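User: Hey, quick favor. My workstation is busy. Could you predict this chain's structure for me?
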Amino acid sequence: MWETIGRGVEEQPVCTRAGLARARAGAIAGALATAAILWFMLVAAAATLGRSHATVSSAAQAAAALRPLAGRAAADLFAAGLVISAVVALPVLMATTAHAVGAQFDWPRGLSRGVGSALGFYAVLTVSAALALAVALAGVPLIGMLEAASVIGGFGTPVGVVLLVRLGRDPRVMGTRAITRRLAAAGWAVAAVMAGLSVLFIVTAAQRVIPGG
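Assistant: No problem, here it is.
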């Protein structure tokens, strides 16, 4: 969210209060929409997989789990959801990766630039697409990749939040626009909760692996 606000301000010709307010409103709207989508996903999972405590290890099993809600259209609905999410997420993820790598090496970057003026940026985009295609052709299980990504992201979230809070409070980075103590406290609370959930996950997984644990 802070990154979105920062990018919005950076793209303004002049850093004004109105520009910052528009960027903040966009970030808040995006965060609320994401929370609503996550909530509907949790409800759908509870109404299908949760009723029978079933586990899913393939896309076919996930589609079959939707039958109580979607009936015969479950497979088509799940396939449409995968395609739509890929169309929306893939360009964003690849562009974000290319932008992060370009920022590290101070390359010209951005989809608004031509290929000739940002060769490194578009090279990273191409490599990212090639790696994604290679993984797909290798037959790596989709559900397994999603689960692994979720677990890794969950472990990394507390660290990322701590770094963001420290950067947001650092006047050498933020200048006169450092985040408030109230927002920093909220960030520390989120980091603590996420860290606790990560430890709980590790303990639960260890109990499943170790007999008698």
